[in-house]
Design brief:
FAD/NAD(P)-binding domain, Flavocytochrome C3, Chain A, domain 1, Methane Monooxygenase Hydroxylase, Chain G, domain 1, four-stranded antiparallel sheet, 17 helices
């Protein structure tokens, strides 16, 4: 490690920063980042050549909030299930905008990866025979979702962190990466610039390869299932700024069952009530006592696709059949109390702490922004169009298409962690550290960015960045929410332009203050919000999670992906790209027409 300084823009003073050389920098310490690091070491890379950085305490990534389960065609209860049917379900749920090769990369690998996690000590729930148990999730043809009670993400990350620590993989916590640095032509990534949020020190990571595993962008909505300071679009915004392309940004999944803040308190508004409640037999009722999914999906009921159930709930509330708090009722009290406490322990404890006994009464829920299907365009190895820059997990696009199959998010993180880890290890095996890198380009770009950060810290404007973030969330919720139309999207872009203008007058304290972090989140959020709004305006149809009442039908001619890239003079350029076809094995599974019949559960 070395210390360096570069002049600020006005040449009057220097900005000090620490330079940290590393072969592979992994940005994001959740399941995707951890699994990539593990794979690199298992493929022979020295742990000291890897560094995992996260902007929270180690082990406190958003992965822990994924509760319901992780998919893989083990066939524990349904031996006729296999990876091709899993792939077919994923493509059907994605309304066939998914990249079939990426879908197959995930579904083929998952049975073995689940068994590997079991070998590493993950606390899976078990059948009476001792096998990894599996439950139904929405829109799945068979019981394919492995789980650890209703704390699967937490158990998964604990397992991966323990494995990474056993391999002595280095990590740094509370580090905020604010810019990727490239060569002068923008063709190759050289490293990343960051701030230590504890000390306020600037950090330059000089890296041969950078992996973005920094999550998604749904906390840019007013009601969402994330913590406010996570899933703010860091990964897609960093990649876009570096010259990579984005795709499918209009597809934002609204989970049907988020907690209703008017009932449980503002701090709980939008927090996820896991799909496992419905997977274990929970029923949805409106305020009139009607099990309303009979109107919308009589065959699949509460276990239809998330977009279908979320829109049904939204319509019930809009029609005046919601609760006084603005939700509907989710009831699993018909199941045995011991069953509920065993299968849904975290949910049971959470509501018990709020004075609600799930074993005897329903809970109130409403749709909440939950997952961004879009993200960074990558090839089959997870590499972007910028040489040496990779994106995986919720940061990447391609696996989920227009709507994500429940249980596939955790699956994608570990499957592509393995895929990308293999690819980078093979690349570095015959490539000496720093090959062809231009150190002057790296330091020049770093110096300029650190000068900008130094100017941002201590800004004395009149606008608080957290307040502007709240306004941005309201803009997306109002104009690019469950329902979108041309007038609303146009109004949203106008509102976004006003927010950008207001963002020039921020009030920001020093680099250790939360206002500094919020200001950086805001910059990322403005970029991602524009990509969402423009992509949604570009797609004149309804498909999956993208619902446009002014274009209510699905248009076969729009079986295309919307791609976003940097245009001239700071503009966003949009184009479309065709979707590939699945392999013959997956096509056979699609043609067989497998489908969940909810009533077999009753």
């Amino acid at each position: 490690m070395t210390s360096s300084s570069r002049p600020t823009n006005d040449e009057s003073r220097s900005v000090d920063y620490e330079t940290i050389p590393v072969r592979v920098l992994i940005v994001g310490a959740g399941a995707a980042g951890a699994r990539t690091a593990i794979q690199l070491v298992e493929q022979g890379l020295d742990p000291e050549d890897i560094l995992v950085v996260g902007k929270r305490s180690h082990g406190d990534a958003h992965t822990t909030w994924a509760r319901g389960g992780i998919n893989g065609a083990l066939g524990t209860h349904d031996p006729e299930d296999d990876w091709t049917i899993h792939a077919a379900d994923t493509l059907n749920e994605g309304h066939h905008l998914n990249d079939p090769a990426k879908v197959e990369a995930v579904t083929r690998r998952m049975p073995a990866l689940l068994r590997e996690l079991d070998d590493w000590g993950m606390a899976f729930s078990r059948t009476d025979e001792g096998d990894i148990d599996q439950r139904y999730f929405g829109a799945q043809s068979f019981r394919r979702t492995a789980f650890a009670g209703d704390h699967t993400g937490e158990s998964l990350l604990d397992t991966l962190v323990e494995r990474a620590q056993s391999l002595s993989i280095p990590y740094r916590e509370n580090v905020f990466v604010s810019k990727l640095l490239t060569d002068d032509g923008g063709d190759r990534v050289l490293g990343a610039a960051a701030t230590d949020l504890d000390t306020g020190d600037f950090l330059l990571f000089d890296a041969d390869a950078v992996v973005l595993a920094a999550g998604g962008y749904t906390s840019l909505y007013r009601r969402h299932s994330s913590r406010d300071d996570e899933n703010t679009g860091d990964g897609p915004a960093l990649a876009y700024d570096a010259g990579a392309r984005l795709m499918d940004m209009e597809f934002v999944q609204f989970h049907p069952t988020g907690m209703v803040g008017a009932r449980y308190g503002e701090e709980w508004d939008g927090r996820l009530v896991t799909e496992a409640v419905r997977g274990e037999g929970g029923h949805l009722y409106n305020a009139q006592g009607e099990r309303f999914m009979e109107r919308y999906s009589p065959d699949q009921m509460e276990l239809d696709a998330r977009d279908v159930v979320a829109r049904a709930i939204d319509e019930e509330i809009a029609a005046g059949r919601g609760t006084e708090h603005g939700g509907v009722l989710l009831d699993i009290s018909h199941r045995d109390p011991e069953f509920i406490r065993e299968r849904l322990p975290r949910m049971y404890e959470r509501f018990a702490d709020l004075g609600v006994d799930m074993a005897t009464e329903p809970v109130e829920v409403a749709p909440t922004a939950h997952y961004g299907m879009g993200g960074v365009v990558v090839d089959d190895a997870g590499e972007t169009t910028v040489d040496g820059l990779y994106a995986i997990g919720e940061t990447m696009a391609g696996v989920h298409g227009a709507n994500r199959l429940g249980g596939n998010s955790l699956a994608e993180t570990i499957a592509y962690g393995q895929v990308t880890g293999d690819a980078i290890a093979a690349r570095l095996a015959d490539w000496s550290a720093g090959s062809g890198a231009d150190p002057s380009a790296l330091h020049d770009a770093a110096g300029r960015h650190f000068a900008d950060l130094a100017s941002l810290a201590g800004s004395t404007g009149s606008i608080r960045p957290d307040a502007l973030l709240d306004d941005l969330r309201a803009t997306l919720w109002d104009h690019a929410g469950i329902h979108r139309d041309e007038a609303g999207l146009t109004a949203g872009l106008d509102a976004l332009a006003t927010l950008r203008e207001r963002a020039t007058g921020l009030d920001v304290a020093d680099c250790t203050d939360r206002s500094f972090e919020f200001a950086l989140n805001l910059q990322f959020g403005l970029t991602v919000a524009e990509a969402i709004l423009r992509s949604a305006a570009e797609r004149p149809e309804s498909r999956g999670a993208h619902h446009r009442p002014d274009h209510p039908e699905t248009d076969p001619d729009w079986r295309r992906n919307v791609v976003v890239e940097r245009g001239t003079f700071g503009t966003m350029a949009l184009s479309t790209a065709p979707v590939d076809e699945p392999s013959p094995a997956v096509r056979d599974a699609l043609d067989a027409g497998y489908e969940l019949d909810y009533h077999q559960l009753e």
